[in-house]
Amino acid sequence: MRIRGRARRRMLRGAGVVAAIALVSGCTPQPVAGxxxxxxxxxxxxxxxxxxxxxGQPIDLASGMHVLSADGTGGFWTTSAGSWLHVGAxxxxxxxxxxxxxxxxxxxxxxxxxxxxxxxxxxxxxVHVMPMVxxxxxxxxxxxxxxxxxxxxxxxxxxxxFEFGDVAVHDGDAIVVRYQPRPPDEYLDYEVLRIDxxxxxxxxxxxxxxxxxxxxxxxxxxxxxGIDVDDAGRVYLATPSARIVLAADGTELSxxxxxxxxxxxxxxxxxxxxxxxxxxxQSDVQGVIVGGSSEAREAIEPxxxxxxxxxxxxxxxxxxxxxxxxxxxxxxxxxxxxxDAVWTGGSWVVATGGEGDGVLLRLAPPVGN
Length: 369
Hints:
Elements (H helix, E strand, L loop, with lengths): L4 H21 L12 E5 L2 E2 L11 E2 L7 E4 L5 E5 L2 E5 L5 E6 L9 E8 L2 E6 L8 E6 L4 E4 L17 E8 L2 E9 L6 E9 L5 E9 L15 E4 L5 E4 L3 E5 L5 E6 L6 E4 L5 E4 L10 E3 L4 H7 L5 H4 L11 E5 L2 E5 L7 E5 L2 E6 L6 E6 L5
Parallel strand pairs: 1-22
Antiparallel strand pairs: 1-27, 2-3, 4-5, 5-6, 6-7, 8-9, 9-10, 10-11, 12-13, 13-14, 14-15, 16-17, 17-18, 18-19, 20-21, 21-23, 23-24, 25-26, 26-27
């Protein structure tokens, strides 16, 4: 895998962040990633406080987070079931709070950065809150809702904004996955929409079918579809049946088949993409857990040898990881079954685990290539 100059500088900055995190965690010396190794560094943060972890005490193991976004300045936001966390580029915990049940902030299904103080969020679950696209001001935690698509304005089988899947942002527009029922003969279609965040105007870029038997592990929800964009505007789609890359205008550039339960994609600015989906493949690539508490390392360890654990009951999710870049496709034998992932601050941030074994970690590629 070749890494060109600008990308290499980003990787080195990411390695510096990893080293800083290891120092902040205050843990005993741990294995160091070599120049050809991927590094996995648990991210410590300051909790909102409990008997086990008082306020101000850094922790790196908690309930798993399921929604991640870059914050536009090298850090990230993450949320799950109303629990919110903001970690800055230097590893400092900038915000940690919980939203009340029923608050729109407790119904966020996906988010992506619009600016250093704004996130585009998808909220709603068709039960408590109607699906909608909103812009969240993170300085005040208030939302501006965009106009929705009315049910029935294009015929009897128009379900409006039936459900949203995932979101990315490029050039000030939201790139959104939306699901549409297709009765009486089909199950669902997914659509990729470009949405103007000022007017709410929508452009259809791409669509495809979702089969009834896709991703049975995701039920009772709809089969998940992940989306991300690179700096050139190319759109990356991870579906239960394929890994797809689109040009900025929606033209299909590539399609690779897969069978995935919880497909996911996270893309670097230059187009290097991490994909989760399908069964593990053999690879000589090595990942090394760098720093972190013994509890966090223990939680990550079952994901370090996915060919041995993916088919067991050890992991809640087991979709395998691979990298695609200008040099081709590269299976990675570790870190299967991620909840979400995002590129920020020169590396990927990945959320794994669930109740009691959730870990946020920085995943950095080899710096020697």
